[in-house]
Amino acid sequence: MEARISGLVGREAETAEVRRLVETAVAGAGQSAFIVGEAGLGKTSVLEEGMGTARRLGMRALSGAAQDRERQLPFAAIAGCLGADAASSDGLRSRVAEIVQGHERRGIPGALGGGGEADFAGMEALLGLVEDLCAREPLALFFDNLQLADPASLEVVRRLMRSVHQLPLLLVGAYRPDHLCEVDRLVRGAALGRHTVLELAPLSPSAASALLAEQCGGAPGPRLWSMAQGAAGNRLYLTELAAALLREKAIEVHDGAADPVPPLKTLITRRWRHLRDDVLQALRVAAVLGADCTVTDLAAVLDRPAHEVLSIVSEAAGAGILCEVGSHLVFRHALVRHALYEALPGSTRAMLHFRAAQVLAGTGATPERVAGHLLAEAPETGGFLTSWLMESAAALTSRAPALVIQLTDRALALTGPEDPRRGGLQRHRALAQLTLGELAAAEETARCALLEPGAAEWEWALRWIVVQAAFYRGRPDLALAEAQAVQGSEGVPATEATRFRSVSAMCLLTLGRLREAERAAEAAHREARGDAPTLANALHVLSGARFLEAPGPEALELALQAIRFAARSYHPAERFRLELTLASGYTELDRGPEAQRTLAAVHEATERAGGMFLPWYHLSSALLAFNTGRWDDALTEVEAGLDPGEHFAMSRALRSVAALIAVHRGQRSDAAAHLTAVDAASDTGTVAWFYEHLPLCARALADEARGDCEQAYGRLAHAFDNGIGHLPSRRTLGFLTPDLVRLTLSQGDTAEARRFTAAARARADHSAVPHHIADAYRCQGLLDQDPDLLLEAARCYHEAPRPLSEAHARTDAAELLAGRRQQAQARVVLDQALAIYTRLGADWDAARAAARLRTVAVHRGVRGTRSGHRHGWDALTDTERLVASHVAGGRSNPEIATLMSISRRTVSTHVSHILKKLTLASRVEIAAEFIRRTSQGR
What we know:
Blueprint: H1 12-26, E1 31-36, H2 43-56, E2 60-65, H3 76-82, H4 91-101, H5 120-136, E3 139-144, H6 151-163, E4 169-175, H7 182-187, E5 196-199, H8 205-216, H9 222-229, H10 235-247, H11 264-270, H12 277-289, H13 295-302, H14 306-318, E6 322-325, E7 328-331, H15 334-343, H16 346-362, H17 367-376, H18 383-399, H19 401-414, H20 422-436, H21 439-449, H22 459-472, H23 476-487, H24 494-510, H25 514-527, H26 532-549, H27 553-566, H28 572-588, H29 592-609, H30 613-627, H31 631-647, H32 651-664, H33 668-680, H34 686-689, H35 693-705, H36 709-722, H37 737-746, H38 750-767, H39 770-784, H40 787-799, H41 803-819, H42 823-840, H43 843-854, H44 878-888, H45 893-900, H46 904-918, H47 923-935
Parallel strand pairs: 1-4, 1-5, 2-3, 3-4
Antiparallel strand pairs: 6-7
Helix pairs in contact: 1-2, 3-6, 4-5, 5-29, 8-10, 10-11, 12-13, 12-14, 12-15, 13-14, 16-17, 17-19, 18-19, 18-20, 19-20, 20-21, 20-22, 21-22, 22-23, 22-24, 23-24, 24-25, 24-26, 25-26, 26-27, 26-28, 27-28, 28-29, 28-30, 29-30, 30-31, 30-32, 31-32, 31-46, 32-33, 32-35, 33-35, 35-36, 36-37, 37-38, ...
């Protein structure tokens, strides 16, 4: 007699709640829920019931279970659930799998920002996949054993919880509670908004009785119930008890005594006691292979023909132990697999893992699968491990650099001190540390590797790692010293000397030693002889030096040449760096459309590469939007970039843009919060150094808003004369001159005002950039008290366009016109300035301008309609309205991003802003509101 198939006796409330969540998600309002309980209480059964409900109600239901062995493999749990596999026939899933594999990030220093959970490229790809799947049809994701999930997968879950309300998505996870469990802290965190937590308690006596009655075909008698009481309401305990007694034909208890309930492990092991030895051995191997086991894998490790293994699998399935899910063999309950695995002697387990690693490596399995088995049990010798690492470490570094570090440590411990492969192993270890963001450790590993046997083969590669690690951890001085030492080394090949000379030029540029940087770059350019990466780097340095000193056509042409050589470079990251620099150059030269096109061309690549490129892209986009007067779009880019910015040393610059806007809008508390965060951040990355003027400007503006003009002037003047960090002074910081002249004149110091005006003129004469010319006109107009020069400055700012500066120049001109008793013209010019301030939402500037003009008896004319709405349809920006139209068209965030040539994160942030401004709860409601307004012609 076999136990009957059980319904979810005692879990009616939980299954009803899951059904309610499914119905809500189908209607377009996304939901997240978590089922919490100890082993055997029915979490998996509730998940399975939920999946069935979701499918019956028309949702696509996907499921997955985390494995302990994959905890060190970033995104293993979430990628498995979503079916993101490079071999997938679905092009979308295979592309996502390629991004998660990380080949475009290989060798990028700090690409993962200190850990796999900071792999924003993989995260963006997986979040985008979820959004694309939701656009096709409502989606339900069911995760089991979340307590075993890798940190990167949990980070994706956290982000989905935060944005689930935007999507027709149901997210349900199950886990065992533990005070050290990261998922438990995640679920119980208050900051992630609303989600449902279903805590499974042991079955009540009545529910336990009903379950046994259903299993055994009748109500439990007193002796069976006595045995059942030892199960303490554990569903799996009760089910296994009934199955074991039925299988042993021992459902009747004799002699009036109830035997104690055996341990759960004993109950489970009784399930396979009657199996043949070859079936049991196959189950042990399957337990070692884990959830990604296939019949082919099992046959290979057992060294038996596939048809025999199929027969064994069929018998195991008939016994209720295994089942087939797609191409994989899965244990019906994780506890069964765990019991089989734990029952193996340690030496047998180690042997099977090692055998599995060898077989999988021979069949072309992914490096991460092989690595998982090699890590599970330490091999006694390092022969296979070392040979495999020398072949596979490069590919594994892209996917899971932390695994490479552990395996190379193991291999180094097993190889002798004279083994010539030690230098190569150390090189792979250093590259993994470099990718992981452990830059100081990578530098130390590479230096130690230079002392290993066989290091001569890897010497220049190891020294390159030393230079890169020092440079990207904010020590270009140490990187420069090492690069120069290599150039002076005896026996250094000419190509290597030239390559290190080009990186010396980059270090010098970063240190602000522009003349030396140019000389080194010119020498590297002469000696490169067709070496594309070296030529690209040398041209980039020359372009950067020109942009800092005298931005203009020459600097731009050098940048374009660098990109052409980078296209032939060995690594796509070379091109991303140059294209983002080019976008900044276009912005500085007031060539906004070209800056926008450059950013549009690179946004998908930066999402794929991740690392520092992602926040750098958002910062570049934010600065372009800020300068051209699209401040809400700028704030959206700041918000989208902050999370990766905090991991990759770009948060100070991003927050400073937000602080500037907050001060201009009179939002003092927001500005103070951003500036406090700026002070707390430690952005040591060398890219961030080139944006240190942003915190300076934000603090100076905040000083002025508090009425401390002297403090503001002191900050700006000191920077102008002494530089900011490593950035040189004067011409590089010429954009400060209008504010310096204005503040200096307010203190009556015309001599200093003349000095700053002369610097502005020199900059404009050299560059012919519209806003540089406007700065010079404004400085001269303020100095000479000439309103015509100020109006000419406003015209040039308008041409640029730089609307905030245009409004400032018009305010200055209106004040001077009023001083000449030309009140009517002054009022017209003031109204033009106030119209710009109103459009920008610059309330503080508008109030200050109106106050200045009131002192000379000028009041604003006819007031226009204020556009500073904070809520409702009128509060939406043009960009947000366009996003809303695409949402109404049923497009996913990644699809909208492609259509608008912006990032998926930016689109997601726009959608969040739309929901907040319209007080809506889901994308379905956005679509409905858009359609309603369109039908009404509004």
